[in-house]
Amino acid sequence: MPYPRVGTTIDDRDIAAIGEVLQSGETLSQGSVREQFEAAFRQHIGTRYAISVSSGTVALELAIHLLNLRPGDEVIATPQTYQASIQPLLTRQVTVRFADIAPDSPNIDPARVAEQVTHRTRAVIVVHYGGLPVDMDPLMRIARDNGLLVVEDAAHALGSMYRGRRPGSIGDIGCFSFHSSKNITTLGEGGMITLNRSDWAERLRSLRANEADMVLMKREEGSCGSMAPVPQALYPGNAYTHECLGVLRHGTNATLSEAAAAMGLVQLGKLPDLVARRQMIAARISAELARYDCVRLPAEPADVVYPYHLFTFSVDSRKVDRNELVRQLAVARIETFLRYFPLHLLPEWRAQGHQPDECPVAERSWFAEHMNLPCYPGLSDDQVDILVAGLSQAISKARRSPSFLRGRSGTY
Questions:
Q1: Which of 169, 273, 362, 402 has a 20 to 30 Å separation from 98 between CA atoms?
Q2: φ/ψ of residue 272, rounded to 5
Q3: DSSP at 320
Q4: In this predicted model, what pLDDT tens digit does every residue of 8-26 receive, in sequence order?
Q5: Are 227 and 258 contained in the same domain?
Q6: Would residue 347 count as lying in a domain?
């Protein structure tokens, strides 16, 4: 029962779309198919702009660049995410303040965010873990009351809904991933940035096409020192015709290819069926777990749509040895991954002063309670049956002994 290497299904429609692009004789880079994919995506998410890029990591890098952070600024982030969510902040002279996750959810706790706000705070980076939407309304109130920008890492959240809105349209910037493991893919890699500001959209289009992000002033004379005059009518974008008042960052080539965009269009059309399959598998697993008093599922409010990019649950560590449960699932040939190790305890963040006990809920969760199970459209019904049966046996074998329980106290 492998953990997903491919989080979607690929069929003749995907192959045909790619073949049509390859045989069209049109450009394979920066063409009309990419524009169609971006248009369909922004309509799905509900934002004015959707800018495709080469990966979800690049989407996050460019989003953080748009924040215009200065030395001494602070950014609030969750510890429960993949390292790419905040890795670009390592190279900036800013302070990251980690806000713990909620007691009943793998997502950042708005109450903890409020505690971390200072006069230096400029932004909050939230992650819709596993596709379960963050409780965005209270978080956005905190952000607006304090003049903060909000970046939504929605890499897991394509297909989600929060009170009638799509993640990626609620904050200031949304970032999506089309990696092979995600809810849809664009030939293994790809990403999208969603937003409503026209000035940011213009900057993003320039940055992804190798143009430097700079402030320019038109020269009165098209010359550079002792060099010959440059005809401005012939070279309107030439550097000799402008003075550079400040370079913020060089651009990069983050182009999503036409073949990748063609696959993305097809995959986006299949998204409702892909989500429905994930939800069906999740319902089977949840029904099995409901039989046990030693298991807790994340709180799932009635007004959200949860596409189960990851199937996550927690065990009561007083009653079940989580590490033994992982071992027993491995014996049953059910592959699991514990996602993700608390970011503030990684060496690169500890080098910046972060320490254990900074986010106790996230730490307790990862070290003793947290579990992920395979849940993706490629699982057959027979595999789901095997998974459910193996899970039942593994939980039984991982239960604590009565003598262990008598020596323990505390709350779940």
A1: 169
A2: -55, -40
A3: B
A4: 999 999 999 999 999 999 9
A5: no
A6: yes
The secondary element (H helix, E strand) that includes residue 175 is strand 173-177
Burial of 401 (0-12, 13-18, 19+ CB in 10 A): exposed
On whether residue 183 sits in a domain, the answer given is yes
Q: Which domain holds residue 245?
A: 217-249
Residues 173, 275, single domain; the answer is no
Same domain, 26 and 52: yes
Based on the domain organization, do 23 and 70 belong to the same domain? yes
Q: What is the mean pLDDT of residues 100-110?
A: 97
pTM of the model: 0.93
**Does residue 353 come out as left (phi exceeding 0), alpha (psi in the -120 to 50 range) or beta?**
left
300 and 189 in one domain? no
pLDDT at 237 over 50: yes
Instruction: Look up residue 371 and give its two tokens.
Output: 């579990």
Instruction: Name the average pLDDT for the chain.
Output: 93
Angstrom distance (rounded) from CA 306 to CA 132 = 5
- The total of structural domains in the chain comes to 3
Other beta carbons within 10 angstroms of residue 219's beta carbon come to 15
